[in-house]
Amino acid sequence: FVTFAFTADAGGRWNAANCKTAIQLMYSSLVRSQSEYPQLHLYSNDPGVVPLLTTMKTTPHIILQKRQTQSFPSNEYSDLDKWRALSLAKLDAVEEVMRKHGVRAIWVDLDTLIFVDLKPAVGAVDSWVVGYQSGGCGGTNKNCSYEHTARGGLSNRDIEPAYDTYGDLWSLSLQTIDHIKSYRQRYVEEKLTLPLYDLQGYITFMLMDGVLNITFLHEIIPCNFGFFCSDFVFPTESNLEVTVRENHLACPTREFVPMTSRVGSMSFTALTFQKLFLKASTRFQFIADENARIWLTQWFY
Fold first, then answer.
1. Which of 91, 106, 188, 283 has the CB geometry, 3.0–4.6 Å to 171, for a possible disulfide?
2. For the whole prediction, is pTM greater than 0.90?
3. Contact at 8 Å (CB) between 154 and 104?
């Protein structure tokens, strides 16, 4: 597993204390969900963000890659937006880990929680991502992606709902990474309008162009992922619909989205994660369902 936890020159969204708590929660979710004790390569400018223990009081296997954001190769977003430039550098970090250690790696954002073993997905296909970032879009709507001008994006092309991908959880082969880099180079050389959301935007456009052979995670592991539990909007205390079914976290199924009710992962934004998890006075108080609160408490603690 690979992630970032930068507290300087990264858009100002995280401080060290919040990073440390978020990494502890995210990594602890990996410990509980994975069939093998997880190794996490953590890129950060601040060694203080590495938690000494998991929420269950076990010792984490976290390898700190002490770096500054400027140490990554400059990219097409470097002069436009620090956050997006760093977000695109996820690709460089994952490639670096894979080439150095000779293994497949899974990217997971520090504000993403995992509830299912991902090893079967890595062994099953060459590369995978999570789709349906904006949901099923009514079944026919092709302009509900945040890349589309109708949602504040920069593109007016139709986007299939399934191809509207996330950047918070994915695994790509080196061949796929090289393919994405070549596609990016064409955008730069031809001075095309860049995707608003860097890496995930490129993947979305490559899928629309039919030039990327990739699998969606829900097709391998029958669970839901991303913003599914908040019905494909940023999670808040009022919109998260989480219950327990057959001893697993569950959310209502969503129309035109072929994912099951079982929760495989939950995505948040930096702002929503900090508000829900780090500023609450009581653990998981933002979850309305009592059984789900009990389940989460037992899962983490």
1. 106
2. yes
3. no
